[in-house]
Amino acid sequence: MSDPYRPGINASCWIVSDGNPGAENQCLGLSEALGLDPRVMRVGHSPMLRLLPPQLLPARLWLRLAQAGSGNREEKRPFRPPWPDILISCSRKAVGFSIAVRRLSGGKTFTVHIQAPQVPVRCFDLVAPPAHDGLTGTNVVETVGALNRVTPRQLAEAAKVWGPGLANLPRPLVAVLIGGATRRHRLGRQDAERIADQILALAERENAGVIVTPSRRTPTTVIDILQKRFSGPHTHFWDGTGENPYFGFLALADMIAVSGDSVSMISEACTTGKPVYIIELSGGSGRFHRFYERLRQDDRIRPLGERLETWYYPPLDDTERVAQAVRDRFSVCQTASN
Fold first, then answer.
1. What is the CATH T-level fold of the domain 152-303, as seen in this structure?
2. What pTM was estimated for this model as a whole?
């Protein structure tokens, strides 16, 4: 959905990702900021092909091998001309496809890769990695967090839809966003009980309302516990049925508490400009800690404690900053080619 308040680009666009929602949403967020109507290409390839650097193979050969391995698993569309004006990719599996299309188009396809590509950044026209990855280059635009689809317009529309159904809850209203276990973080039954205890005690102390949503990654056992614990008159738990209220929760909340496993959810919460509390989970990594530290330094996040506070900070604007960089560079490339 394009936003009439953002300057658009008149161009064809492909989005290439491995189908992971977190990666694909970053591409969609950027395409929406640019006012594009993209064709989404979900790709994969054989484990053996991952060992072959795509930048070192002839583009047609790599593309043929990759598509033979799995191709577009869902859409079954081969990569072929006419090539798009802009290609936005995210995830390691998408890297080779982006490089191949750029070469086969004779450099006419403007390629943008989100996240660290694990190949030289010169293989793309623009790379948008998070700052905690430490990439540098003249075509690199660092982001603080993950690109996303959160905009003031999106939130305003969601508030209209979900506001009446949540109007009975007391204020302040706390949105609780729960992720799941990952390779770096653990989220089990004991964690669910601890989170429920902490949030409910805080809500009682502050006379606050609570709205809770799990994610696709939340274990069923955790969902069962949280749904049972957040069943009181001052709480609302989304059980996964019906329309997803995620944007409505972001729009209506006075403050947001996010489990510490998800860069995407934390980034989306900070894009609202509202106070964001981190629900700490066991585990982590150096990259996650650098991400947290940057947000703490900017006073965008604080650890969830025993009191609710209100503070202000400039909302994250990573998506719009990258979109503006694309507008500027794409315009220069178009002028040069003409």
1. Rossmann fold (3.40.50)
2. 0.90
